Amino acid sequence: MKKFKLPLGIVMGLLIFSCSSNDDNNNSSTEVSIIGTWRLIGVSSSDAGNAQLTDCGLMTRLTFMENSMASFKEHYDNNNDCLEDNYTVEYSVDNNSLSFISNAESNNFLYELTATSLSYSQTENGITNTTSWQRGE
Fold it and tell me: Pick from 17, 16, 44: which is nearest to 123 by CA?
């Protein structure tokens, strides 16, 4: 199994807001908000399988704010050191599409959101990369 570093593009793919119907039979819907802090729990690729995330990589956090901004605290290993990169990007959600906008460039992802989990994916050149998050610090 390959080890892979969390590329910025994959991490950027993590922001979401969705509506889902509840289990009641009253035709109402429950809004699930993407607002809050999410912790990285998995990265996978259709050609390489699940990434082996290190303790350092698992410290990566993504926070969606109400002002359509998202803050990333990306942790990655570099020569046995755990390094952190911090950056903020704009995000938008439309139906099942999540977009991260940085330096006038937009990265678009399909996403799924529940009250406790968030995942988003992007397919390029026939390869689908998926990033999974869990709500919480």
Answer: 44
Q: Cα(62)–Cα(26) distance, rounded to whole angstroms?
A: 34
The residue segments making up the domain with residue 26 are: 8-135
Has residue 117 been placed in a domain? yes
List pLDDT tens digits, range 118-127. Answer: 999 999 999 9
The verdict on residue 1 lying in a domain is: no
CATH number at residue 67: 2.40.128.280
pTM above 0.85, yes or no: no
Residue listed under structure tokens 């996978």 = 44
Can you read off the two tokens belonging to residue 49? 């399988």
Structure tokens at 30: 């429950």
- Give CA–CA dist 123/134, Å, rounded: 22
Q: State the total domains in the chain.
A: 1
